[in-house]
Batch of 2 targets.
Target 1
Amino acid sequence: MGARKIIIDTDPGQDDAVAILLALASPDEIEVLGITAVAGNVPLALTAKNARIVCELAGRSDVPVYAGCDRPLGRKLVTAEHVHGKTGLNGPVLPDPTMPMQQEHAVDFIIDTLRIHDNGAVTLCPLGPLTNIAMAFEKAPDIVGRVAEIVLMGGAYFEVGNITPAAEFNIYVDPQAADIVFKSGAPITVMPLDVTHKALVTRPRNDAFRALGSRVGNAVADMTDFFERFDKEKYGSEGAPLHDPCVTAYLIRPDLFSGRHVNVEIETQSELTLGMTVADWWRVTNRAPNAMFMGDLDADGFFDLLTERLGRL
């Protein structure tokens, strides 16, 4: 079949960085056509910079990086420096990137790429707010039917919210964009908090990253050392959840994940539950399923894969 062609849409973020590294370490399964940056964990100037830092860390300055939307569709930007630090990549000391930003806007790159490639050839992998994807769909409705699949990190059902009592961060930042994407009709696979909170970087798992003895292994260990302090205090968990690498792991080893094809609606009106992903997990409505909503993963298999692939860089 060959490698799966993808666009990574991202707001790095330490866990975004690990997701990108996993993709770049897996050329037999994944061909990264480009990386599009969006405002989210930190403002756009930093997410676009961080995406290039990660590419250079992987030795892949050939991967084009495009800057996209600097704010949500209909509200002020909410960021997460309290989790990721002021730069978004706090933890390791990494040099500023030397590779250039592409001149084309990320939204136009998404549109052009989907039009250039065969129908159903390109998978979109959003790791942050869905602003760029929604803007592309609104600007060029013809591309929606050309998308092979959207595999995204976002939302929650049983784990409810991590930025409000009801909402997961990526969806909360731009619920209007999420609403557009979930109503688009494109095939969607969701990695919600229900899955990602099971991908915990325990001390032995982080030690395994550092034991790789490489620049990448040390950088990833330093990243998770930094942001786990927030999650361990918040959840009382053994370590920090690696949210976004679930997306790229699914592209390589879908058998590690299980879920249900259900209806998912996005709350866009209520101040109390804004950004909530209302997943009909128990199929109690007659609303048509529109997403594969993952509920579990093989955590040991996930970390075995991640450690083995990072060791290739």
Target 2
Amino acid sequence: MRDDYALRAFRAIAEHGSFTRAAAALDVTASALSQTLRQLETQLGTRLLHRTTRRVGLSEAGQELLQRIAPALNELDAAMDALRQHGDRPAGLLRLTVPDVVAIALLDPLLGEFMARWPDVKLDIHVDNGLSDLIAEGFDAGIRLGERLQRDMVAVPVGGPMRSVVVGSPDYFARHGRPQQPRELDAHDCVNFRQISSRAIYRWEFAHKSGPRKGQWFEIAVNGRLTVNSIPLAVRAAIEGAGLATVLEPFARVALADGRLESVLGDWLPPYDGFHLYYPSRFQVPSKLRVFIDFLRERRQAAEVAQAAPRPGRTQRPAQR
């Protein structure tokens, strides 16, 4: 048995928490993967995993082993990928961690085009709204809002500024009225959002729209009977009239366009810095990641040009002199 394969198999099981999902990621059968793990445990003379019918968890020895081998395997993967880049085409596995808004609004429309352009690059995309440790978890890069990135990361903007929206259903507004300023949210039923990483309740963010404090941000803790940790669920609750929700605009775009949701407090909502692709500053960028970055930049520029172009059938307002 190749030790490196057995250790990679163990790492995959630990990361996925499932023999079935790990086997799919490694393109082997679950029974073959189980046999490899048993052989590794026999060789080491200790149990690495606790198995039940519902889940797979690490034993104390397994936790210690994973902590020790993960950095070494990640370095080995990086070295192998770097050697592959000497070929004619970028190749290898590109592992990314992204939040669901990026998966839905940014990557979903582009994945087919990227994979057609670079057929030797494989993508492994992990959707997670928390902040992942890129090095410890074996990711090549991640995409997050710029304000959430650690200082030791190289950050590349891959999307323009974004805004949140405060939304509710037409029926909700008919029954409860529309808040004209953030402080009036105290009189409304709001959908609270529990943040994935900290588990804290998100405080809604606004910026003063006028006066001496114009542009200054402030936060409000809203009241509500419903708390979720899923943004799509918050949108669905707002559509069903359960209360007001605040989400990044791409999550509510379709429902706003078709009238299931309406927005309020738009003048009080500041733009965010936008999404950035990030990777460790000490990381030598392999060509598989470089072509992905260049591709996202290219599509962003194309979208900006298309947005700036005048639409057919519409006349542009003359510039004010």
